[in-house]
Design goal:
Layout (H helix, E strand, L loop, with lengths): L9 H9 L7 H11 L4 E4 L6 H14 L16 E4 L3 H14 L7 E4 L6 H9 L3 E4 L1 H10 L9 E4 L2 H6 L3 H9 L6 E6 L4 H10 L4 E4 L3 H4 L3 E7 L5 H12 L4 E4 L3 H13 L4 E4 L5 H12 L5 E4 L1 H4 L9 E4 L6 H8 L9 E7 L4 H11 L90
Parallel strand pairs: 1-6, 1-7, 2-4, 2-5, 3-4, 5-6, 8-13, 9-11, 9-12, 10-11, 12-13
Bound molecules: adenosine monophosphate.
Amino acid sequence: MSFIELGLSDQIVRAVTEQGYTTPTPIQKQAIPAVLSGGDLLAGAQTGTGKTAGFTLPILQRLSNGANAPQSNLTRRSIRTLILTPTRELAAQVEESVRTYGKYLHLTSGVIFGGVGINPQIKLLKHGVDILVATPGRLLDHMQQGTVSLDKIEILVLDEADRMLDMGFIHDIKKVLAKLPPKRQNLLFSATFSDEIKILADKLLNNPAMIEVARRNSTVEIIAQKVHPVDRDKKHPLLAHLIKANNWKQVLVFTRTKHGANKLVEQLARDEITSMAIHGNKSQSARTKALAEFKDGSLQVLIATDIAARGIDIDQLPHVVNYDLPNVPEDYVHRIGRTGRAGATGEAVSLVCVDEFKLLADIEKLIKRQLPKEFIEGFEPDPHAKAQPIQLRSFQGNPRGGSGGGGNSNRPPRSGQGQGAGGQRPQQRDGNSPHRTSVKPAVKQSTPRRSGGRGGA
Ligand code: AMP
């Protein structure tokens, strides 16, 4: 089946073909007709499956057809589609996709997120765009300041809805939903279906089409995965050795904490390996710069915490390194999903010390296979080493920290009206991690948030 056969216009197919896409991915085959039909949609799909084009292409098609279709790019307009994403990076990437796929149409788009000046966004919103991509916190600021109007929304997309709930955005989302016109098309994309997601879907969606594509942890066979056992204090020299000995040119490294990411940048610098870190304590401009340099190949190593890396979309990223194993086993799948995307092969290696054996066992249980272990000469771990509790300097996964508590309790208080130009939000907002300081064994932080498994579709 081709994109033309799915009912997309010549202009859209041309833009997609220019991206090198010849055949729709499984999620696209199902989502495109469902969205074109105008009904609601509940889609189970992770990043890396082509889900962004799965909703963007039919939305572009719907907006460019019909009575409200704009005739030029210049006229003022109302927002007709709102796409909410959990993180700033994902928001930027989705909007970039909208622009790429819509380049031959007369539709306009914009993106708003926190951590950057609000005034350019106010200007953008004043002029209006057809498609607005936003993170919930900053959108709410604009709503409270009266600088955005959502009363002409025809289509709402919640992208990575599970992450948005994990990050405590449910109250913000509810406030946004309350301001949307009741008659609209709703699309909900989520990698997992916890009870919370099911409740949200029940409230939001009207007789939705339900589609699901295989989870990445059943489709990542093209990614070579292995574990290098190593002592905890040898991880950094081992990483430097791997990068140098294998001549790795583009490596995404995951650390558990922001502090760990910063420290690793310094350690690698001593080995003359250039790296940058992205995490919630970095300014938006630093994060954007690091990501751009990494994407264009001028930065060899990007070090990221889980939430900061969420949704990073780099074609054919060859190497992902788990410098620390994640506390939440599903994050392992998200992490390695950065490589081997859309059919490319990739390699994911995990540096695992004795403290992390329980985390490794949890991951292997989730992905239903044992990861091959490869000892690297000169870095074999001490067989008598004793496990120590993992120090969680900053917690990156579930804001509820396994307490099962009520969603938003760890969020910083709202700071009244939004900030002026250049104002910084409290870090948890708009996709940064909550800054929980806790010193607990990581194994306690298992996965209450994912307990629902794959229900939904
Ligand atoms: P996503 O799941 O939306 O993050 O997309 C993952 C990657 O797949 C992105 O790099 C897209 O550019 C790419 N992609 C999306 N659709 C296709 C397609 N039909 N053929 C090849 N690559 C695609």
